[in-house]
């Protein structure tokens, strides 16, 4: 007997809905923890945090904690508090990211830094980060604390790495992968892994869930970066061309630059260094990434990591949870079209 | 037999030197941990962190952890790593503070945000904060993790409280004390208390050290706020008048405003709301705080908290450590003159 072999792309319109349905009950508990623990006597804190937390995010990371717990048959409720801790780390990161990037729009809404200013965003981010550690301490697992404090340090390192790589057109694919592995995939990996820790499963199960989350995280980020060169404004609550106009080095640019002729390379250098950011420039950029198949191949890379994510959980029992986690991967890589 | 009763002000020129000497050997170990754990493969991280960490700070908070350990006769070395964690939390807070305040000078040197920009300061602060939790997790005490994660959340709350209180001339003394209790005294308290935790001493000893740190922290901050209205540039690596020009509400202003006549109050309102920040305005402010005895009485408040700090450790054995901790309090309140 062989396990069912799952293929990416067999489903015509994959969706996150099965995963959302799988964890609905658990997510209500997580949301209750989030709502309770973002409170403070200082009114600006819940006001600002609530703007982002209630602001229509997918709750992807806590959802992964909950789905992973279902996959391995965990029946306790420790993961509710920890999923909230994961979401707080993510929210703190978003608040600081938007300050760092000077962003004015996230998930289709004005960013907190635009509404309340950079100082408030920095400080409320710090507060949520501290709260996330308080939640972990209440749970009491030093192993979970180790995994999430390490993930937090890696995220910050990845963000600094990205900052020092900004506007450098010669950034290679390896360094780009280092950056997204740290700033995005590390928390996806940790979010999945901690379910195996609270369920007291083997190291092998822990690492399998870690690998699922990490590869899914890389696939997610690759597709996000591809979407910037294909989508209409609003698809992800993010404007197409945002990355381009900010001179952000992402894989579509890395590939289009590497595959272009001398004139194309000059265009990319000028664009990434901030000398070309008009609508016509962006239209030309779209044309170049299409002609060099840079977007298609960014998606192809994402499919590779997506396949690895699916294979990482092949050893777990088939069922609703596994199906939902596989379809989440398919959704992640199919979003661009 | 009665314990020796220590009086504030009996020593003509109190100094931090006895405490520095008391902990020299331990501090070398702490510095080695700090230097080791601020490293990263991303060169900007140790570069930026090192600028502040090597930048001539007094290492007041880790010094308090070490002195407290000596006071209670702890003979292990777990507190070295934890003192480094405390300093990392403090450094992260300073990096974010300078971004929030737009400061350009700290300890007489240009701030990191001026040299490397706000984004790098925010992200390296996040990194150091994560590293501090990694150090605590390595130590493995959930109680220490609880104390320091709670202190971190309280600090962030205090900073947001201060932000929302900015430029409000009607801020009362109570709210001011809430703010400095959170943003300064909470970490002083935690730094002292964790020594009793690793030494496995009684709750009473823990709370005595907590009270020593908390009251010393309040005294320290009160005197810092007084110094802004008396010192020449350079005394603390901080320019006299910085708080005034930023419209910061501190106790000297609260008292001078409350004790002034209608004309004085109008002056303070204009100044705090940002409409009077010239050198002549500052000279007039100095004159007002002197005439209303606002600085003297800020120092008197500091002496009150200083006395409470000294009384909090009265129950511990007399000796070198206790003498050094008492003189540190005397130093804290005598700095202004």
TrEMBL record, chains A, B:
- Which cofactors? Mg(2+)
Q: Which CDD domains match?
A: Trans_IPPS_HT
Do the record's keywords include Metal-binding? yes
Please indicate which superkingdom the organism of origin belongs to.
Answer: Bacteria
Q: Which PROSITE patterns match?
A: POLYPRENYL_SYNTHASE_1 (PS00723)
Bilayer-crossing regions: none
Question: What UniProt keywords apply to this chain's record, in alphabetical order?
Answer: Magnesium, Metal-binding, Transferase
Q: Which family does it belong to?
A: Belongs to the FPP/GGPP synthase family.
Protein name listed in UniProt: Polyprenyl synthetase family protein
Organism expressing this protein natively: Sphingomonas longa
């Amino acid at each position: 007997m062989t396990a069912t072999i799952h293929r990416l792309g067999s489903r015509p319109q994959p969706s996150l809905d099965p995963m959302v349905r799988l964890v609905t009950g658990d997510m209500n508990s997580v949301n209750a923890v989030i709502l309770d623990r973002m409170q403070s006597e200082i009114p600006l804190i819940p006001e600002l945090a609530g703007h982002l937390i209630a602001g229509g995010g997918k709750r992807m990371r806590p959802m992964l904690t909950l789905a992973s717990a279902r996959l391995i048959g965990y029946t306790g409720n420790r993961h509710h508090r920890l999923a909230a801790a994961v979401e707080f780390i993510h929210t703190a990161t978003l608040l600081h990211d938007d300050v760092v990037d000077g962003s004015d729009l996230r998930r289709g809404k004005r960013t907190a830094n635009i509404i309340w200013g950079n100082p408030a965003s920095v400080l409320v981010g710090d507060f949520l980060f501290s709260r996330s550690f308080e939640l972990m301490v209440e749970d009491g697992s030093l192993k979970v604390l180790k995994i999430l404090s390490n993930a937090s340090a890696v995220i910050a390192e990845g963000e600094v790495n990205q900052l020092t790589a900004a506007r450098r057109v010669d950034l290679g694919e390896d360094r780009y992968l280092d950056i997204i592995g740290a700033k995005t995939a590390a928390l996806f990996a940790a979010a999945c892994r901690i379910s195996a820790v609270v369920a007291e499963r083997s190291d092998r199960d822990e690492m399998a869930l870690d690998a699922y989350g990490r590869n899914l995280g890389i696939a997610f980020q690759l597709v996000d970066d591809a979407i910037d060169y294909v989508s209409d404004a609003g698809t992800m609550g993010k404007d197409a061309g945002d990355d381009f106009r900010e001179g952000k080095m992402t894989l579509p640019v890395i590939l289009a630059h590497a595959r272009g002729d001398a004139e194309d390379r000059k265009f990319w250098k000028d664009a990434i260094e901030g000398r070309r950011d008009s609508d016509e420039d962006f239209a030309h950029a779209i044309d170049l990434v299409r002609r060099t198949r840079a977007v298609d191949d960014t998606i192809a890379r994402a499919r590779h990591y997506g396949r690895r994510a699916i294979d990482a959980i092949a050893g777990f029992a088939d069922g609703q949870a596994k199906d939902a986690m596989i379809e989440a991967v398919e959704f992640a890589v199919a979003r661009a079209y």
